Amino acid sequence: MSLHRSWMIVPLAALLGCQLLIGLDEGTLKSPGTGGSPATTSVSTAAQSGSQGGGASSMSASSGAGMGGASSGAGGAPMFDLIDDMEAGSGQILKVNGRAGSWFSYNDTTGMQLPKPGGLCPPEVFMGSGGAPGSTKAMHTTGVQFSGWGAGIGFDLNHAGAMTRKPYDASQHKGIVFWARSQHAAPIPPLYIRILETETVPVSDGGTCVPPDAGLPCGDSHSAMVSLTSNWQLFQLAFTKFAQGGWGAPAQPPGLDTAQLLAVQFAVENTPDFDYWIDDISFYH
Predict the structure, then answer these.
(1) Which long-range contacts (CB under 8 A, 24 or more apart) does 122-125 make?
(2) What is the pLDDT of residue 76?
(3) Contact 181, 232 (CB under 8 A)
(4) Which is it for the CA torsion 137, 266, 3, 18, positive or negative?
(5) pTM of the entire predicted model
(6) How far apart are CA 121 and CA 103, in angstroms?
(7) Where are the domains positioned within the chain?
(8) Nearest to 40 by CA among 218, 198, 224
């Protein structure tokens, strides 16, 4: 078995910043015959103009008008539960509906990433405007000279300073919505969105997976892939579009258990350089 990821441990005193956490899903562990990075669900994007209608079974992309934070729509349109709009500048998600957690960054240690793992991970002021209408701040990460599995940023959903993060119940929702763009020169590397749930995360990091589970390693979290452009786009992704890569211990029962979510991550794989922004993130139902 070829390992393209590692389990990294840092002192618990660093848990409130932009840091490497125990057992982060760095998402590029491969087993023999996989041919490289794990399989993920590539979701097509459909342009919208202004409103977000339906589309729960696929990801939608929009540039221009859109959600603008937590909102609800009439006539069957999605209702939104804002996770973070970054406007507070604290580096922590909004403490609403039982959620609490800090933003973190992580990488394979072969290159240089900003913000650096180990320190505070605050959003940045976007020159001009952020992704959502009226936004002034967004989460930004950039990196150069990476030669391993890659890097990413993310946040926990239920980790209010506790020793171990706990699961968050998002079963009342259908999916996740966020704005994103890239400042990387073409070709722009794809962005992988990972949702960590207890079945795929080791016990030591708040999950229930004990490696080797069914002879396979933990960490094969449910993922989807999107293609970014230099313009802000609004992505709407149903939970049903997230799938495991097949290289790790399978979740039982199969599929994403939305009642047991631990974290959300945005990552790039097998690319030397990257530069992307993430803005207003919500669950929708």
Answers:
(1) 122/18, 122/89, 122/90, 122/91, 123/86, 123/89, 123/91
(2) 65
(3) yes
(4) positive
(5) 0.78
(6) 6
(7) 23-30+38-285
(8) 224
